[in-house]
Amino acid sequence: MSEQTRAGRTAAVIPAAGRGVRLGPGAPKALRALGGTPMLIHAVRAMAASRAVSLVVVVAPQDGAPEVKNLLDAHSLPERTDYLVVPGGDTRQQSVHAGLEALPGTIGTVLVHDAARPLVPVDTVDAVIAAVRDGAPAVVPALSLADTVKEVEPGEKGLPEPVVATPERARLRAVQTPQGFDRDTLLRAHRTVAVSGDGATDDAGMVERLGTPVVVVPGHEEAFKVTRPIDLVLAEAVLARRRANDGF
Ligand code: CTP
Ligand code: MG
What we know:
8-stranded mixed β-sheet; 8 helices; binds cytidine-5'-triphosphate; 2-C-methyl-D-erythritol 4-phosphate cytidylyltransferase activity
């Protein structure tokens, strides 16, 4: 049996149903332009750039699935890949779950990738897939931190917050996407792990709650999440640098 058959085919689920409140007023974040192209299209291309990815499932804003379908049709995308659009939910966790339930049975490996990380390089995507195919049920790309992190006791707004602990920085990692999973493991996590409030912001964290081991592989600085207005400035600069490099 080939590697590909044993691990099943690989799909990428892209949650893109968020509003982008922290980015400020405007269109839903995933539909905003970067270098003239919607962020979501960059993210879809980043996943489809991996030859291992045979299906991309985009999770659209709840009433935005037709618009997102039109958007995919209007942009050039690799033809070896299939594309599917499903409506999302109120939280990221619900949106990812909706995408997972839409996967056909032939998929054995699944990536979950934020539409808000449009510039992740294909080498990072391939490294995550390779680690899952080598037998890890859950793989997370991550970077070490530049800033020291403090744990605080959040208090009344505007008042100084007491520090509770300072975790050793060298042992901390900031996690990115795409996170890669054995499909059955992630589906089980989403079907069984209840998370209160705004839900899980991290799929690997749900797998950890099953007691299943999660491993970290090197992430990439260009896989940063576009969250606040300054991130748009950085993303445009990265794109401009890529264009300049391509020109030579
Ligand atoms: N997401 C989603 N469904 C939701 C909320 C978020 O699919 N109900 C997606 C976002 O579209 C994004 C990813 O999850 O691609 C990461 O979330 P985040 O960066 O927090 O994006 P938003 O929720 O859109 O931003 P904000 O929290 O600032 O509103
Ligand atoms: Mg959010």
